[in-house]
Design brief:
Blueprint: E1 6-9, E2 12-15, H1 19-25, E3 33-38, E4 41-46, H2 57-60, H3 66-75
Antiparallel strand pairs: 1-2, 3-4
Length: about 90
């Protein structure tokens, strides 16, 4: 859970949304949010559909160390055992 403060800016009350939450929601400054109030709380969701995030190769391979790949190969070794049963190559 993240705690933020509400402050006065001009005639409005403003809440800062931390950068990590913006990244999680895949939104940026200027995005529109749908805000709903109920049961003593409010929720804010990105308006409409959000654009699908595109990842760089560096992001996709983050954590893919030789040791991690070795461990993955060991954990999935069972899937590579046995003879072909269909039209596999």
């Amino acid at each position: 859970m993240t705690i933020v403060s509400i402050r006065r800016q001009g005639g409005a009350a403003v809440m800062t949304i931390p950068a990590e939450i913006l990244r999680t929601l895949r939104i940026d400054v200027g995005a529109k949010l749908e805000v709903a109030v109920g049961d003593g709380a409010f929720t804010a969701r990105p308006e409409g559909k959000t654009e699908r995030r595109r990842y760089s190769l560096r992001e996709l391979l983050r954590g893919a160390t030789p040791e991690a790949m070795r461990r993955l190969a060991e954990e999935t070794d069972w899937a590579r055992e046995g003879d072909a049963v269909g039209r596999e190559l």
